[in-house]
Amino acid sequence: MLDLRPTLRVALPVLKTVPECADFSRTVSPFLPQLYDLPQRIFDNFNNLEALQHVYLSTNPLVTALGFSLFLSPIVFIVAEINKNYSQVDRLWSILPVIYNSHYALWAHLSGLPTQRLDHVMAVTILWGARLTFNYWRKGGYSVGSEDYRWNIVKDYAGPAVMFVFNIVFISLAQNILLFAITTPTYILLLCSRITGDELNFYDSIFSKLIFVIVLIEFFADQQQWDFHGAKDTYKATAKVPKEYSYTREQLDRGFNTSGLWAWSRHPNFAAEQGVWLALYQWSCSESETYVNWCFAATLSYLILFQASTWLTELISAKKYPDYRLYQDRVGRFLPKIATGGMDAPTGNGNAVGQKQQDTPKAVKATGSTRKR
Asked: Where is this region: Disordered (predicted)?
């Protein structure tokens, strides 16, 4: 019978201090060659479950996760090109990080390593994934033929040839690697657990609770957006302000949500989404006693991606909704402005865009904070 708990030295580096857990040259580089023969090892033992378990446990867990992301990339590319639908990674966005973080926890359990910290990471990640998956599902994201409306803009601008290359380089490959990379702080936490043991510390308590709170903010932001569009659809169909919602006719006429969390941030759900992975990265820094570690590259890439995606979203919204530019002036993109001004300030003739030139920051300052309805 095969030993299902092989020597950890085969799969993990020998480390003595927690700062070493964040050293790329010691914890990642030596194990990357395992990626080269991993497909062949899996193929050779495909029909032997016990042997596959041995391969799994004798391979560095970060390498296994990286290999899985690379395996998915050509599949996503082929499906996208066959259907000319570029939302394939979008459908996996809320699922893959859950798989990767659960993988690190499972690997630690099977290898006999301390797991409390990783179990906490897995738990909050599952909550994050369940919320995002549910919200994507109820908006029809998993329906056959469903595609993010922004891809049509990109396709029209880029053309078929450029879109083909873009699909290879960014949509299928870069995005898949990014979804793997944002979970790599969990690998550092796994390594730290080998040194610090299974007892949870101050950082574990703070960051696990922080991520939980951020996920709650995402939930409320998504629900407020869902409620608004439900009210707007009813309003369009009946020309009457639905009584079951608390929106005014003026708010519904704008066409986009400016109430609740959306009165303080133009994209509170996006802000919280970035906050989850920024918090996980900071968790790994705190546990490894480092100010910055190599996982920062993934976190920064995630933030940049959201900047670009939000820029395109707002470009479309500004063309679609007359009042959106005023909303951009008054409310911060992700974080509240120092002097955030709501959209329910009196505008004279009711046309916010027509009053934009009169409603300068100086005028707002002179009249005090805007009135909330």
From this structure: 342-373
Count CB atoms within 10 A of the CB of residue 169. Answer: 10
Place of tokens 């549910």: 134
Return the amino acid letter for 314.
E
List Cα–Cα distances, 1 to 46, 49, 52, 114, 259, in angstroms: 17, 12, 13, 25, 63
Nearest Cα to Cα of residue 260 among 272, 247, 273: 247
Separation CA 17–CA 27 (nearest Å): 12
- Quote the pLDDT of residue 7: 58
Q: Are 280 and 121 in contact (CB under 8 A)?
A: yes
Nearest C-alpha neighbor of 32 from the set 65, 54, 1? 65
Lowest mean pLDDT among 70-79, 163-172, 288-297, 340-349: 340-349
CB 120 within 8 Å of CB 283 = no
317 and 158 in contact (C-beta within 8 Å)? Answer: no
Whole-number Å distance between alpha carbons of 299 and 245: 38
Tokens 């001004």 correspond to what residue?
A: 341
**Residue in the structure block whose two tokens are 């996980």:** 280
Q: Which pLDDT tens digit goes with each residue over 111-155?
A: 999 999 999 999 999 999 999 999 999 999 999 889 998 998 998
Q: How many CA atoms lie within 13 A of 171 on its CB side?
A: 27
Q: Kindly report each contact of residues 22-26 with a partner whose C-beta sits within 8 Å and lies 24 or more positions away, as own/partner.
A: 22/188, 22/284, 22/285, 22/288, 22/290, 22/293, 22/294, 22/295, 24/293, 24/294
247: CB partners within 8 A, 6+ apart: 228, 231, 241, 259
CA-to-CA separations, 64 to 34, 171, 269, 297, in angstroms, rounded: 9, 21, 31, 20
| Cβ burial, residue 206 (10 Å; 0-12/13-18/19+) | middle
Residue carrying structure tokens 């909303």: 327
Angle, CA of 249, 250 and 256, to the nearest 5°: 100
Q: What is the arithmetic mean of pLDDT over 323-341? A: 90
Q: Provide the token pair at 105.
A: 């926890």
Query: Measured on CA atoms in the order 269, 271, 274, 276, is the torsion positive or negative?
Result: negative
